[in-house]
Design goal:
707 residues, alpha+beta, Glutathione S-transferase Yfyf (Class Pi), Chain A, domain 2, Neurolysin, domain 3, globular, mitochondrion
Length: 707
């Protein structure tokens, strides 16, 4: 019922613009707003300072969170409010109010859980991280109990059984009621008391196993440093007699460094292997307990793909279409390796990322350092501002935070403001590297939007987390093209959160099916690779010279080099994910399945005594849903070509995109949103053809002069 907070994505529907207009007009102007570009090119404050004593306000303006102990206080308030709302729901007659109470219940829990989900991994203070971790566990336990509360479920069941009342509800309210019931059903509400308790315990166990697996997937492996040739030891962190291997060193030009990193980092860890097997088994037990054939069948309810059978059809069709292309890609990479290392020229898995990059750089001269001076962080943020203004009538303003509101002084707070509707929400930009901060680019919902009981709109709050370098005394933060594209991608998620302005928090913004949630972010990558967009902001930070058109053209053309092999790698990961979450007991060990799947769906050989699956952290948040990246990219490609390729600043298309796809969050079936935008119901062949056609796209069609 209340599982939305712990899903990677769920979404929402709505307009509500007229209903909330009155409350928005009060938020239109703030004297503390300043231009976004200048704010990000200003010298960053560093390092993170932890203020002594209690601050004026708490994290994100939450009064209780001035210190780690405040999580306990916030958690207790949330649970007290939850108890009150549960009692109210159980005595309220069937009607719209039931759905509103359930959403208030969801909001009460999410206000703590969503925030804690971010703080537990990103706050520089270990005490805050530990307090947030405990809050997540406590709220998660409560969610699982509520999802099997028979009396609470009965109040919703009465509403759904009353055809007259249901018929009087608007479509969004009906869908939210059905989604709440779906959460009950996948948690086993229909089971007897003994089995319901088992379902609760399994869910709690799965949460713990997910945390354990996630931590283990990032831990380094160590090897006696004396085993390593002395001339390459400097590539690894050395502590005492051991070298720490903490990644694949995929960009190293030394074949031996990459080979050693691959074999050591991916060497099987018995504890992690046991954790994965227990996680997969527990997920399958839960799925079968509540009436599904497999965990994949449970996970794919309500998605665009709908069933694991359709997912596999999609992946197999795509793999077949890519076959000839990936063979050519591997031949090119092996030819390049032959030039560099003729004695040991066989292409291996540790070679793919490196030699594909070498081929791109050699053919198109796309050395990142040539591009960085044109992509200062401030310029890129101003570019986003220009795009959103032209496309959606939205501007980004830097706002001065209160003392205690931030967890690190280099975080920037942005107000997202519509030209007519006023303040839409806030984006906290945690963009810079720091010790103990995860090296990953993420979007976090901190507070979901909803229409409150007093008629005002609860504005959404999100965090964008990147790992950018700090500015220096001589230059602002400069982004590589890849960093710039990632920034646009994550800002796509943020805009989805800002514009998915639904009546109900349970389906707001990115709280939608996972295979739809990535569409807005991937679509932003198309804008980031269009010269007409890039030309609006890419200026040399010293001279002001615009980025030459031919440099953008070369960069985009280079992305087609080995693109089929890159896509096939994603197919391999997605198929592996489907098999792991398919029929149990698994026919073979997870490592044997990896070997078999790699050889069938990738093409490069499995390396003995490695277990890549133990580093596959997406199995936690994207279990049975890793295919979502490919399916979302297919939809984004179709939307781009139909709506924006002729004019990336087309305001009418931007408004239509907001109306058909962004505004609904998870309050409308995802495939219906896609159908509304494309004016057709896409088939599996349409998804596959969209992805394959991108490999052949003539990028020059994107570079029409904007004069």
């Amino acid at each position: 019922m209340l599982s939305g907070w712990r899903r990677v994505a769920r979404s929402a529907a709505g307009g509500l613009r007229r209903a909330i207009a009155a409350s928005e007009t009060r938020r239109r102007v703030s004297t503390s707003w300043s231009p976004v570009g200048a704010a990000f090119n200003a010298q960053q404050q560093q390092p993170c300072r932890r203020d002594a004593g209690r601050s004026k306000t708490g994290l994100f303006g939450v009064a209780e969170l001035t210190c780690p102990e405040g999580f306990q206080e916030a958690q207790e308030k949330s649970l007290q409010e939850t108890e009150r709302l549960v009692q109210k729901a159980c005595i309220t007659p069937p009607g719209k109010e039931i759905v509103m109470i359930f959403d208030q219940l969801s909001d009460a829990l999410c206000r703590v859980a969503d925030l804690a989900d971010f703080v537990k991994i990103a706050h520089p203070d270990p005490a805050f991280r530990e307090a947030a971790e405990e809050a997540c566990r406590s709220i998660g336990t409560m969610v699982e109990k509520l999802n099997t509360d028979v009396d609470l479920c009965q109040s919703l069941r009465k509403l759904l059984a009353d055809k007259d009342v249901m018929g009087s509800l608007d479509p969004e309210t009906r869908r939210v009621a059905e989604l709440f019931m779906f959460d009950f059903e996948i948690s086993g509400i229909h089971l007897d008391e003994k089995k319901r308790r088992k379902a609760v315990n399994l869910n709690i166990k799965i949460l713990d196993l997910c945390n354990e697996f996630l931590i283990g997937s990032h831990l380094p492996n160590k090897i006696d440093k004396h085993i390593l040739p002395e001339d390459i030891r400097h590539n690894f962190a050395v502590e005492g007699n051991y070298a720490q291997i903490s990644g694949l060193n995929a960009d190293s030009p030394d074949d031996l460094v990459r080979e050693i990193a691959y074999k050591v980092f991916l060497y099987p860890n018995a504890q992690q292997l046991n954790c994965l097997e227990e996680l997969l088994t527990s997920r399958n037990l839960l799925a079968q307990l509540v009436g599904y054939d497999t965990f994949a069948h449970r996970a794919l309810q309500g998605t665009m793909a709908q069933t694991p059978e359709r997912v596999m059809q999609f992946l197999v069709k795509l793999s077949d279409k890519l076959l000839n292309r990936i063979q050519k890609d591997f031949e090119m990479m092996e030819g390049m390796k032959m030039k560099v290392n003729p004695i040991k020229s066989k292409l291996m898995p540790w070679d793919h990322p490196y030699y594909s990059g070498v081929l791109r750089a050699e053919r198109y001269n796309i050395e990142p350092s040539l591009y960085c001076p044109f992509f200062s962080l401030g310029a890129c943020m101003e570019g986003l501002n220009i795009l959103f203004s032209k496309l959606l009538g939205i501007s980004l303003y830097a706002e001065q935070p209160e003392k205690g509101e931030l967890w690190c002084e280099d975080v920037r707070k942005l107000a997202v403001v519509h030209e007519q509707e006023g303040l839409l929400g806030y984006i906290y930009c945690d963009f810079f590297q720091r010790p103990d901060k995860p090296h990953q680019d993420c979007h976090f919902t901190i507070r979901g939007g909803r229409l409150k009981e007093n008629g005002e709109y609860q504005i959404p709050v999100v965090v964008l987390m990147l790992s950018l370098p700090h500015s220096t005394s001589s230059s602002p933060t400069l982004l590589t093209p890849g960093m710039m594209e990632n920034l646009f991608h994550e800002m796509g998620h943020a805009m989805h959160s800002m514009l998915g302005r639904t009546r109900y928090q349970h389906v707001t913004g990115t709280r939608c099916s996972t295979d739809f949630a990535e569409v807005p972010s991937i679509l932003m990558e198309y804008f980031a690779n269009d010269y007409r967009v890039v030309n609006q902001f890419a200026r040399h930070y010293k001279t002001g010279q615009p980025l030459p058109k031919n440099m953008v053209s070369r960069l985009c053309e280079s992305k087609k080099i080995c693109a089929a092999a890159d896509m096939q790698l994603q197919v391999f990961y997605a198929v592996l994910d489907q098999i792991y979450h398919g029929k149990h007991p698994l026919e073979k060990s997870t490592t044997d399945i990896l070997k078999e799947t790699q050889e069938k769906f990738y093409g490069l050989p499995y390396v003995p005594n490695t277990a890549w699956q133990l580093r596959f952290s997406h199995l936690v948040g994207y279990g049975a849903k890793y295919y979502s990246y490919l399916m979302s990219r297919a939809v984004a490609s179709m939307v781009w070509k139909k709506c924006f390729v002729q004019d990336p600043f087309n305001r009418a298309m931007g408004e239509n995109y907001r109306r058909e796809m962004l505004a609904h969050g998870g309050g409308k079936e995802p495939i219906l949103m896609v159908q509304g935008m494309l004016q057709k119901y896409p088939s599996l062949e349409d998804f596959v053809d969209a992805l394959v056609s991108d490999l052949d796209q003539d990028f020059e069609t994107f570079f029409m002069d904007s004069e």
